[in-house]
User: Which sequence fits this backbone?
């Protein structure tokens, strides 16, 4: 009888820990979704301005636009990492774990892509201020391509995956 009580208590505690982990992951995904939605809007506006500057330069017309700073955001994965460390994911449905892991992998890809860009362009910060040289224009075009082909699409994908996770997965499991 005592063994059954211990097993019941362990199962109860495991379920409670799992539910707490799911709630933390849901809150984290929601927070990350808000961050990425805001930064996507900023990046789209930045890209419009950047393309305008490139077009003006190519047409040899004067431009009044200046580029603002390009910002990125830090996305959190603390709740997911905590769920793995506490092993509460072993009590979750395997499809749920797979869905959550997939979203965090895309988030990690996004962050690695940004780190790669920052490390490769750290010595090229003057391109935002001096766009008269061919080298600076080439860097601005690379930046435009990078935003258009890698950053903005990944941000859109992340928003979509965050929404799917919130609607399709968490509503069923919380």
Assistant:
């Amino acid at each position: 009888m005592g063994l059954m009580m211990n097993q019941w208590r362990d199962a109860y505690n495991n379920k409670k820990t799992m539910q707490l982990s799911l709630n933390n992951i849901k809150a984290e995904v929601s927070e990350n979704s808000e961050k990425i939605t805001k930064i996507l809007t900023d990046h789209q506006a930045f890209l419009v301005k950047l393309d305008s500057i490139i077009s003006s330069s190519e047409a040899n017309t004067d431009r009044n636009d200046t580029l603002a700073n390009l910002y990125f955001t830090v996305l959190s994965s603390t709740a997911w990492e905590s769920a793995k460390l506490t092993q509460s994911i072993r009590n979750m449905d395997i499809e749920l774990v797979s869905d959550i892991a997939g979203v965090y992998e895309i988030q990690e890809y996004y962050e690695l892509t940004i780190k790669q860009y920052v490390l490769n362009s750290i010595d090229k910060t003057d391109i935002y201020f001096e766009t008269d040289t061919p080298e600076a224009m080439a860097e601005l075009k690379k930046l435009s391509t990078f935003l258009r082909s890698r950053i903005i699409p990944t941000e859109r994908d992340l928003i979509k995956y965050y929404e799917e996770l919130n609607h399709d997965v968490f509503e069923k499991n919380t």
In short: The radius of gyration is 22 Å. The longest helix spans residues 2-58. Residues 2-173 form one domain. Helices lie at 2-58, 78-85, 94-121, 134-173.
